[in-house]
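SAMPLE LOG
Freezer: B-3
Tube label: C17
Construct: single chain, 131 aa
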Amino acid sequence: MTGREDAVAAARGAIGARFRLHGRDPVFGLDCVGLAAIAARGGGFAGAIPADYAIRGADPSRAIDSAGLSRAVPAAPGDLLLFAAGPAQFHLAVMVPGGIVHADAMLRRVVERPGTPPWPLVGAWCFEGED
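STRUCTURE (predicted):
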């Protein structure tokens, strides 16, 4: 498997984990940053992943760039997607074939959402060293 395929598998492996704000462990719950971390590690990313990163507020694109991820244009399955979910509110998801995997606060769990996501895409990143 490639890094992107491994990232998709890792994200899909978290489906069903309960939603937990600031959650970083699927046993106890995940938020979108926790899910992104699982996919990143699955995809072979060895860089630092913030344990206490809050995604609300300023656009986190620069922080993602500086973490060692490369911009993905166009995005492909296994890439990390950043969406503008609301005013000054951002949301991370992992692109999978046919949709995204994300930590859905309303559904209170990690889910796979088919089709085009409902939020504007801010940017997409692939894990350094991927094919």
